[in-house]
Write a structure and sequence with these properties.
about 450 residues; alpha/beta; four-stranded antiparallel beta sheet; 19 helices; about 45% helix
Length: about 450
């Protein structure tokens, strides 16, 4: 064990060795071993191997890179947006040396950790002021707790969204101390519904962009400009939760139009909340923009400190926001924009290029065909948008779904797991998110499927 202790320390080796011996004791109680088998299990070399395997198992539980071939670009379970190199470098710098996070170098006094991001956000959106917290749910929570604690918030019934993990807007409101007042119906809400619901206890009107679902047919809703006018007539603010809010027109990327932060502010919203790690393409963050007096009140709330971003997140967010100063170059510099805007012809060519080595790796048990696919944005954004894509349809020669599930599991057990989707008697691998620079690494580990 000396070499292991020198490399990993005596404490860790001892802990893992004791754990292995205890597991042997429990195994013997259930199913006694022969004297020879027991002697072999506790001889030196076997114990060394057991400790090494335990170490590998522990290290395997760390966050690890995967190949996202699910067809969902902003996959919540896979970390959502991939950061650009400039953001990664900014995070490394913030991690590896002291930085002027809350220090004003010019004056030598304490500074404001949000200052750099605030100036960038205001420049890009035209807002009077801004503040940031660790995610958009936190931004909405902080907004409501500051402006509507023990008071009423009027929201259309058709906008009471639930996001991933059964996380619901009404629950956020209740925990923020606000009383929800629902108006209208699921499919139709009119100006009079808001007017009739407003009273002396009304703290604000709230509009929630239902980005993760669509109501069609016999519908009606009050636009942001009209809702702002109603709010201002009663001298209450209008807050808009854009969720996956965008800072640019997504039609340039081949997507349907998505309401932008700038549009909400121009329409009269007093506060707008949106995410940093969805369509923005940055790190997890919740960004609040709007009237300077309201942002100042929010920043004085003690919850702000509990919900604030750390230096790594702020460094990454600042770097990503800076890219938006040159929007014409976003598809070259921002991974989210680059992946969402990839043309189907380019992805099809990639699939044809990889088909032969894929077939060699999967033969003879499976057949690999190039197929037309539809990618989706993900993370609750653009729920109906479908991006023409291409990839592989992998079918079992035995035509059994159990074989496809086993193959999907084997792909997930590769050194860099490959995550696809089993549906309609096939395993589907969408190549939209496979960077051409990663093709060699992707193919190099496929022989491990037969191991």
């Amino acid at each position: 064990m000396a070499a292991l202790m020198e490399q990993h320390g005596r404490s860790r080796v001892t802990r893992l060795l004791r754990g292995h011996l205890q597991a042997l004791r429990e195994q013997i109680q259930v199913s006694p071993l022969s004297r020879e088998a027991l002697a072999q299990a506790v001889q030196g070399d076997a114990l060394v191997v057991a400790v090494e395997q335990a170490m590998q198992a522990e290290e395997g539980r760390r966050l690890s890179r995967v190949f996202n071939l699910t067809g969902t670009v902003l996959h919540t379970n896979l970390g959502r947006a991939v950061l650009p190199e400039v953001a990664v470098n900014a995070v490394v710098q913030a991690m590896s040396s002291p930085v002027d996070l809350e220090f004003d170098v010019a004056s030598g006094r304490r500074g404001d950790r949000d200052a750099r991001v605030r100036s960038l956000v205001c420049e890009l959106t035209g807002a009077e002021s801004a503040t940031v917290v660790n995610n958009n749910a936190a931004a909405v929570l902080l907004l409501l707790n500051t402006l509507a604690n023990r008071r009423e918030v009027v929201v259309s019934r058709g906008e009471l969204v639930e996001i991933g993990g059964s996380f619901r807007i009404p629950d956020v409101m209740r925990n923020a101390g606000a009383k929800l007042v629902e108006v209208g119906t699921t499919n139709r809400t009119h100006p009079a519904d808001y007017t009739n619901a407003m009273g002396p206890r009304t703290a604000l009107l709230m509009q929630v962009h239902p980005s993760n679902y669509t109501i069609t047919g016999f519908t009606a809703k009050v636009g942001t400009a009209a809702l702002a006018a109603l709010a201002h007539e009663r001298n209450v603010p209008l807050a808009v939760d854009l969720g996956s809010g965008s800072l640019c027109d997504l039609r340039a990327w081949g997507l349907p139009h998505e309401p932008t932060v700038q549009e909400a502010l121009a329409a009269g919203a007093d506060l707008v909340a949106f995410s940093g790690d969805k369509l923005l393409g940055g790190p997890q963050a919740g960004i609040l923009v709007g009237r300077a007096d309201l942002i100042a009140r929010i920043n004085r709330n003690p919850l702000k400190r509990a919900l604030r971003m750390d230096k790594m997140g702020l460094a990454a967010l600042e770097a990503v926001l800076a890219l938006y100063r040159e929007p014409e170059l976003l598809t070259q510099r921002l991974p989210t924009a680059r992946v969402l805007s990839r043309g189907v012809d380019t992805i099809w060519e990639q699939a044809e290029r990889l088909q032969e080595p894929m077939q060699q790796a999967f033969a003879p048990e499976y057949r690999v065909d190039v197929a037309r696919l539809d990618s989706q944005v993900g993370s609750g954004a653009q729920s109906e948008a479908r991006l023409p894509s291409a990839g592989f349809r992998i079918q079992s020669a035995m035509a059994k779904r159990s074989g496809l599930n086993r193959l999907a599991k084997r792909l997930r057990q590769l050194p860099r797991p490959v995550v696809g989707c089993v549906a309609d008697d096939a395993l589907w691998l969408d190549l939209r998110c496979l960077d051409p620079e990663d093709e060699a690494a992707f193919l190099a580990q496929l022989p491990g499927l037969s191991a």
